[in-house]
Amino acid sequence: MLKVENLQYSYVRDQMVLRDVSLGLKCHDVLCLLGPNGTGKTTLLRCLLGLLKPSGGRIILDGQDMTAMSLRARAKYLAYVPQASSMAFPYESEEIVLMGRIAHQRVGASPGKADRRACREAMESLGISHLRRKLFNRLSGGERQMVLVARAMAQQAQILAMDEPTANLDYGNQVKILRLVHHLSEQGYSILLVTHFPDHAFLACNQVALMKDGVVKARGSPEAVVTSESLSSLYGTDVSVAETTLCDCGMKAKVCVPLIRNGDNGKDQG
Amino acid sequence: MIEARALISTSARRFRLTVVILGVLLAVAFITSFLIGRYEISISTVIDIFLSKIAQVEEYWDGKLDVVVLGVRLPRIILAILVGGALSVSGASYQTLFKNPLVSPDILGVSAGAGFGAALAMINDANWVVVQGSAFVFGLIAVLVAYGIANLFGGRSITVLILGGIVVSSLFQAMLSIVKTLADTENQLPSITFWLMGSLGRGVNRDVLFMLPTLAVSLLLLFLFRHHVNALAAGEDEARTMGVNVTLVKGVIVAASTLMTVSAVSICGIVGWVGLVIPHLARMFAGASYSRIMVVSFLLGGLFLLCVDDIVRGVPKVEVPLGVLTAIIGTPVFAALLPRLRRGWT
Helices then strands (H, E): number in chain A? Predict the structure, then answer.
């Protein structure tokens, strides 16, 4: 569906932020993008969203070159879910969700029945209909994130780009968002998830790309790509990926554990 | 049917009610404003004077009341509404564009430029039309320079646009100070000073004819792009990802707001407070959605400035400057409403 080929970008000449990035995203895919700060994850996202113009390479969407698309056309394929922040003015949640319909409205027209229905359905499917009339700025971080996801769904794009959607959320809300990501992919959305938690790859994703210094170091399934070695070299710190059996149901799961205390790195253990 | 009713939300109903109430208040204020002034006149006479222009009415009133009502009070009343509305809508637009509740219509230097232009014409003993024209032209120049600076050095950044406006404002204020030092202290300096405090005292029907079309074009542009302007409140980048052509919409807002503000300022001098505070009051009544506060701001701003100008006209002998009175009357009103206004700011 979405294909990124040899993408390059530089803010200043001769300083490439993205050197050579290739990715693919199919229907139902959840692609987890991992990498340390400053490696170009956000730059890649901004190139995809049309906020930056790549200096080389191609972004292809359903066979069309995306860099030639208008923002309006692009918005119908790709929606952005930003980190939840506050608004400068007291908007109601539904008014925020309704903003996602702009690409579907003619200039000058008021939101029609189809627009209102899309908003209502998006909020219903996320179970946040009761927040419709609530002021966005009065909501908790988790609720705000839900509203922003609803806005992206109302945009009726098949691909969602989520930029650290779990940042600033408590543990329970993080899990809620991950469950939602999984649920959305089952509904047919393709999701690009930028995150700082390698565990998310195992929990909610079926594809992983590891990025460092503007290059995709590895990509593939979480089991193949997220290993003790790859994470340790990616973040420059010792990380151990362990497999464990969950007591209650006997399911196997993988977890990433950073080694913090001196004795933790295994060599000293008798 | 049930579904259709559910789609019309309570806030939409509240908005309609607000518009109706403000509309009625404005109509009442419009009529009663004709009664204020040196010549006493009754409502029925005012109505008959209007009717006499379109139908056969026996003239039982003093002939000079014709001029008082149609040539003096009518333009001043209409201008008060138009100026108040124009300043409020452009304030609301800029606040949404810049995501900043502290922004007022002169953020890009319109007022400073117009002030310099008017003063420059005044020290050259130009007539009133030239003063207005000069204020208009220099107001436009100031914004064009600010916009040019932002586009040359800031790329697409909105912060640089504000910075450009502040820089240009202070430049024109400095030049205004120079002009003031050159002005003679008998006539020119006082008239510059009074101009800078705003007054509708010299408004005539010609000004209405000039202001109506500029206002209509500007409001139409903003109305067409109202949902796009609204999305800018989520931030420039997010608006782009929702399919908004930010560069175009930004240009529309700046052009329309500038045109409205500069024509208001060139007619009545600098009237502060209205463009900054009325949008906040509008949000209190109608929520944050731009398509709503656009309408409510216009009605509320027009109503407010009309009432303030009525006080200016009603106080005998002295003419308190309009721009001064807006703040003196508006601030206590604003302070009284502030507890309710804080809703949603936190």
Answer: 9, 12
